[in-house]
Amino acid sequence: MPEKKKKLKYKFPAEFLWGTATSSHQIEGGNENNWTEWEKGGHIADGSLSGRACNSWELYKEDIRLVKELHNNTYRFSLEWSRIEPEQGHFDHDALRRYRDLAHECRRNGIEPIVTLYHWTQPLWFARQGGWLNKQSPLWFRQYVTRVAKELGRDVTLWCTINEPLIYSYNSYFKGKWPPQARSFWQFKKVLRNLAKAHELAYFSLHDGSSDCRVGIAKNNQFFESYLNQWFNKMVVKLVSRFWNHSFLGKVRDTLDFIGLNYYFHNVVYASMRGYVVMNENKHISDMGWEIFPRGIYETLMELKRYNLPVYILENGLADARDDRRADFIREHLRYVHQAIREGVDVRGYCHWSLLDNFEWADGFEPKFGLYSVNFKTFERTPRASASVYADIAQNNGF
């Protein structure tokens, strides 16, 4: 007798994209950029250097095999600008060929590549000229994007120009946590302006190269709630949410074909005349202490409905070394994604962060975000139990 089809409670649209996400500096290894320079100063929490990371520069075909093993039909990865343009105006043909091979390998396996052009790392020549503080920086970015589009445009339709512009600018230029460790409100604002301009220039360059491409950004939106049921607290929450979630989108909304949502954070805000603090009391947290709050993905998606644009969830995941929360995390978040779709949000895909354990920026190799664990000496990839859960969901287009 033929095998009965599994009855699904949460069935997703027919063309829905299921995938995972990575970024170049976190998995490739062997980079020379502003982050590798900064790591040498002892800034990484576990004392590590990114080094060879997951060795994905050499093992990219193995990574695509894992994506296929998960029954995924999309893969989000980023390009390492410092590899492609190691010196200003000089483009490395071998690096471009490797990325073209990566995109082509995706296509050959029935996987839609989603390519991020800037995921926080910079060529040294760019950083030494002031990085995103330099008024020429959007023009330099456009030159890089134009060359990349020429090389990869045949295999890439979905482009993400910039990953999390506010998170990057805030931690690098206001909080002083990431390179170049500035602590200036004015530099923070200037960088945001230049990133918005860089996105706009990249948008037109990509469309000049291909009329079929779709261009967006990856925006980390958070769900904010008021700690107190009183007008002042609610007003502050509205202002905070407007700044973090919508100020950048408002600047670039006319040059977006889609919005990429990265969802990680829920913040319960207590406000006073002296400022505001986050008062989260939910003890259900990841290994990094981040609250696990699935309903927040529904709330952030419903807020994005105002833009009347397709949405791709480009990051959603947690650090979970024991893998005892990840399967439920995936199912619960997807349940709320399904609810948002039912209520009219045009969600077209979901990428779990991450395919692999990797170098988690200033936290080093300690946080374990991967559906596959990685032995950072042998680079062996091993599936966690949650990988089979996600593979089953992707294969059945629901659960």
From TrEMBL:
<keyword id="KW-0378">Hydrolase</keyword>
<dbReference type="GO" id="GO:0008422">
    <property type="term" value="F:beta-glucosidase activity"/>
</dbReference>
<protein>
    <recommendedName>
        <fullName>Beta-glucosidase</fullName>
    </recommendedName>
</protein>
<comment type="similarity">
    <text>Belongs to the glycosyl hydrolase 1 family.</text>
</comment>
<dbReference type="InterPro" id="IPR018120">
    <property type="entry name" value="Glyco_hydro_1_AS"/>
</dbReference>
<feature type="active site" description="Nucleophile">
    <location>
        <position position="315"/>
    </location>
</feature>
<dbReference type="InterPro" id="IPR017853">
    <property type="entry name" value="GH"/>
</dbReference>
<dbReference type="GO" id="GO:0005975">
    <property type="term" value="P:carbohydrate metabolic process"/>
</dbReference>
<dbReference type="Pfam" id="PF00232">
    <property type="entry name" value="Glyco_hydro_1"/>
</dbReference>
<dbReference type="InterPro" id="IPR033132">
    <property type="entry name" value="GH_1_N_CS"/>
</dbReference>
<keyword id="KW-0326">Glycosidase</keyword>
<dbReference type="InterPro" id="IPR001360">
    <property type="entry name" value="Glyco_hydro_1"/>
</dbReference>
